[in-house]
């Protein structure tokens, strides 16, 4: 079945630094990838939708200059949290939708802790 | 925008008891998906329902889509410790985004 690899699985960084999270579709091409954030005991919140070769579409309230998304190929999307602050600590999850269709496949998530 | 309400937020059951979570919408849904998220893990797709009145079973899990396509339920018969986690419903929109319910956390009492 479709597999999405997300790295790193966890990261601790200092306040003010930037962190890059990668999301790769391993055995399929993903035209569209989605980035979510999940705070403890809450549901997933969509941050942005990225389409290969074009700018990401951000949800209301999500700062595009803080959460940089790049979808340079059909198998890779990256989310960079710039100038991270403790309130950015969260569980970040990507999902990918195959070009051929079907349901979205989720990455294993990245737990970010900003100290 | 479209919203999906999911209840209850938590359900404590003894092992062997049944568990049910419900999702409701004020508008007609084109589809509904169900996911399971284990503690510390990511959502895992369980099933998608698209037809009015549809009922699908996966071993001890029964998924239903209402006749009016405005509600759905997930029922687990005779829960086991491996069932522990949070169960989410989600609706896929025309642009393949997912609108998520709040989730129901299944807790097995010792």
Q: What can you tell me about this protein's structure?
A:
The complex is a heterodimer of chains A (115) and B (110). Chain A is mainly β and 115 residues long. Chain A has strands spanning 4-7, 10-13, 19-25, 30-38, 45-51, 57-58, 67-73, 76-81, 90-98, 105-106, 110-114. Chain A is globular. Chain A starts with a strand and ends with a strand. Chain B is mostly beta strands and 110 residues long. Helices cover 0% and strands 54% of the residues of chain B. Chain B contains no helices and 11 strands. Chain B has strands at residues 5-7, 10-14, 19-24, 32-37, 43-49, 55-58, 61-65, 71-76, 85-92, 98-100, 104-109. In chain B, strand 4 (32-37) and strand 5 (43-49) form a beta hairpin. Chain B is globular and about 40 Å long.
Oligomer: heterodimer
Average pLDDT for all residues of chain B: 95
What order do the helices and strands of chain B follow? EEEEEEEEEEE
Radius of gyration of chain A: 13 Å
Q: Compute the gyration radius of chain B: what is it?
A: 13 Å
Structural class of chain B: mainly beta
Biggest interface goes to:
A-B, 18 and 18 residues
Count of alpha/pi helices of chain B: 0
- Ends distance of chain B: 41 Å
Helix and strand composition category of chain A: mainly beta
What features would you highlight for this structure?
heterodimer, A: 115 residues, mainly beta, 7-stranded mixed β-sheet, 4-stranded antiparallel β-sheet, 0% helix, globular, B: 110 residues, 6-stranded mixed β-sheet, 5-stranded antiparallel β-sheet, 11 strands
């Amino acid at each position: 079945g479709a597999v999405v690899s997300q790295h790193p699985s966890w990261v601790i960084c200092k306040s003010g630094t930037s962190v890059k999270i990668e999301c790769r579709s391993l055995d399929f091409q993903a035209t569209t990838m989605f980035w979510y954030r999940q705070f403890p005991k809450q549901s997933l919140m969509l941050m942005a939708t990225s389409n290969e070769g074009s700018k990401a579409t951000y949800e209301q309230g999500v700062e595009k200059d803080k959460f940089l998304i790049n979808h340079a190929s059909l198998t890779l999307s990256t989310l960079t949290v710039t100038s991270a602050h403790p309130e950015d600590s969260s569980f970040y999850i990507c999902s990918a939708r195959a070009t051929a269709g079907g349901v979205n496949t989720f990455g294993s998530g990245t737990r970010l802790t900003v100290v | 925008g479209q919203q999906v309400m999911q209840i209850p937020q938590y359900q404590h059951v003894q092992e062997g008891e049944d568990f049910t979570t419900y999702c409701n919408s004020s508008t007609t849904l084109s589809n509904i998906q169900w996911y399971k998220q284990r503690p510390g893990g990511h959502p895992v797709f369980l099933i998608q329902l698209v037809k009015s009145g549809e009922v699908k079973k996966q071993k001890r899990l029964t998924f239903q889509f209402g006749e009016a396509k405005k509600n759905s339920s997930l029922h687990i018969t005779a829960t086991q410790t491996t069932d522990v986690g949070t169960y989410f419903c989600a609706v896929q929109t025309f642009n393949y985004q997912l609108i998520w319910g709040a989730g129901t956390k299944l807790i097995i009492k010792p």
